[in-house]
Design a protein that fits this description.
- A 9-stranded antiparallel beta sheet has the order 9-12-11-10-13-8-7-6-14, with no helix packed on it. It has a 5-stranded mixed beta sheet with strand order 1-2-3-4-5, with no helix packed on it.
- The protein has 3 domains: about 30 residues; about 55 residues, no CATH class; about 110 residues, Immunoglobulin-like.
- Strand 1 and strand 2 form a beta hairpin.
- With about 200 residues, the chain is mainly beta.
Amino acid sequence: MTTIDTLESKLSSLLSKLATLEINKNFFNSKFPDGIDIGAADLTGTGSPEGVITAPPGTYYTDTAITNGAMRWAKKTGTGNTGWVCVEGDTGLRGISSLLKNGWTGQAYIRRVGSTIDLRLESLNASAASSGVPLTLPSGFALTGGVVHRSLFYTSALVTRRAYTITDITIVGYAPSDVLNSSICGLTGDAWPSTLPGVSA
């Protein structure tokens, strides 16, 4: 066999393999929505996979648009298009002072990194407060799991107030003269938020 014959044989084999790859590509493209690509170990696309992408448990998905701060997802349960959980995401710090209620004023900030919630409350003024609940945590940020999270608020006069929360921040024994500060950190079991609250801070 000449060198040319050998090269032609190898080229023919390579073309055959490329044709097989093209068939496999067309098969996968027929199984997944537009914009979803098959990577070496996971799926990629844009937007949340929850309710959209059907996959078995153990599948990973990367949102290249990092929608609402969520980048990496894992299929934890079921074989349909639900059961996806965000395993790598960061909402960034969000200013949620506009969510203060019941007459409370001040500054409120919240951030979610993975399943960890970081809440900061600064200069909470109780002068017009009608109840001890200055804030209800937004969807996707509740400190859930059946555990009541307890914390202390301190005033500019170094007086402390007890507080507890799951979804409502409840301050015990506040006085109208209070100007309170605190931070609360805990875990959430909420699904990743479909929209981000407040404004970027």
